[in-house]
Design the sequence.
């Protein structure tokens, strides 16, 4: 039907000439916007995560500097070095530890183990408790490190016991091995439990709850902070975590496409001599490309509106241009059937109208020629008939006046 119809060809051509450029433009705009949104999101979130990382590291630096007050307090250092021997030294130890606790409001409790006389002291909620028994005291695994961060966990009494109620709360613990400044002899352990609320408040400014996810993971995959508080302190066994921890760069991004999460990960590592944490933000494609999809929907609605206009205009133009041709073909069909007196109606002044008028003039000329030829033929036959009649009259006379008298 298209091959044998000029009207259909015109409709298809006009629709293709309008639909294809607009459709191509929408597709290109969508993918360009999608890529631009992705690049902008990665850049802006990388800067945001870097700022969050800086704030967290500054906070941890403050805790670290606070733990060094053991060395700055000569009285407390001397007691740790020589042992807690009497009531007076115990009071001085409590005073020194409370000074450390009160210097940072997020510190929940502080624990000191003195190796010299195998004693330990815990100050929790401002209340001192001590363990003077001969049994082993709590000593964290330090792996020969001077300073170590223990991931998020529930607070405990460090085997000291407490006369007061110790409310359960999630904390991060900074353990410091106390050493003699000259001989590097191990003097004891200082453990500071501080609330995760500051880290939590910093992290909450880095993502949108319900849309994105934010994690802080250590180098073993344990969750320091995450969207689910029940998972804090647990190792997150996910394929994307293994991929993240294997990334060689200190910061960057990567895409992840697997159920139940499909999106982009933006990460930045927090590296110090005593910790290897990774701050990672997970942005699903659903929210990442929301603006691009909304823009595409608007373009699609505009496209549909214009398509209605384009199709209507295309049909109108096609029928407007081809109707005179169709009429002219109808006139030709009537002429072919023998009707030479077809009244060719012409209303347009365009090329088709000119063609129709020329065709009408041609048909008038043909009809005139036919009429002229027909008249000439009739006149010729009339003359022939007259001549024939003239020849018949003498013959008749001869037959009337014959010698026989007949």
Sequence:
């Amino acid at each position: 039907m298209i091959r044998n119809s000029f009207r259909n060809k015109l409709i298809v051509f006009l629709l293709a000439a309008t639909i294809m450029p607009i459709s191509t433009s929408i597709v290109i705009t969508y993918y360009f916007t999608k890529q631009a949104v992705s690049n902008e999101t990665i850049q802006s979130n990388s800067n945001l995560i870097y700022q969050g990382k800086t704030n967290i590291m500054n906070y941890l630096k403050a805790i670290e500097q606070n733990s060094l007050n053991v060395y700055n307090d000569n009285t407390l250092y001397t007691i740790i070095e020589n042992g807690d021997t009497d009531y007076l030294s115990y009071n001085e130890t409590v005073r020194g530890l409370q000074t450390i606790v009160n210097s940072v409001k997020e510190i929940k409790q502080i624990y000191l183990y003195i190796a010299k006389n195998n004693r330990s002291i815990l100050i929790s909620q401002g209340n001192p408790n001590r363990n003077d028994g001969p049994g082993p005291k709590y000593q964290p695994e330090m792996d020969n490190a001077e300073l170590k961060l223990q991931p998020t966990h529930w607070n405990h009494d460090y085997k000291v016991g407490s006369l007061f109620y110790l409310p359960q709360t999630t904390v991060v613990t900074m353990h410091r091995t106390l050493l003699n400044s000259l001989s590097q002899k191990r003097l004891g352990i200082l453990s500071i439990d501080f609330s995760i609320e500051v880290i939590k408040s910093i992290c909450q400014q880095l993502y949108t709850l319900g849309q994105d996810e934010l994690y802080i993971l250590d180098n073993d995959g344990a969750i320091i902070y995450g969207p689910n508080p029940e998972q804090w302190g647990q190792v997150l066994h996910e394929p994307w975590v293994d991929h993240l921890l294997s990334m060689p760069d200190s910061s960057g991004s990567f895409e992840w496409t697997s159920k139940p999460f499909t999106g982009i990960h933006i990460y930045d590592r927090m590296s110090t001599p005593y910790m290897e944490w990774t701050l990672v933000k997970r942005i699903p494609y659903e929210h990442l490309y929301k603006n691009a999809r909304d823009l595409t929907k608007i373009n699609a609605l505009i496209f549909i509106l214009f398509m209605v206009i384009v199709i209507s205009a295309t049909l109108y133009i096609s029928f407007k241009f081809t109707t005179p041709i169709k009429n002219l073909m109808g006139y030709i069909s009537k002429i072919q059937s023998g009707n030479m007196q077809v009244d060719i109606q012409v209303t347009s002044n365009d090329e088709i109208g000119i063609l129709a008028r020329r065709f009408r003039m041609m048909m008038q000329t043909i009809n005139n020629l036919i009429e002229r030829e027909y008249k000439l033929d009739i006149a010729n036959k009339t003359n022939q008939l007259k001549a024939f009649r003239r020849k018949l009259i003498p013959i008749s006379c001869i037959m009337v006046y014959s010698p026989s008298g007949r």
Remarks:
- The mean pLDDT is 83.
- The CA atoms of residues 62 and 140 lie 22 Å apart.
- The longest strand covers residues 261-272.
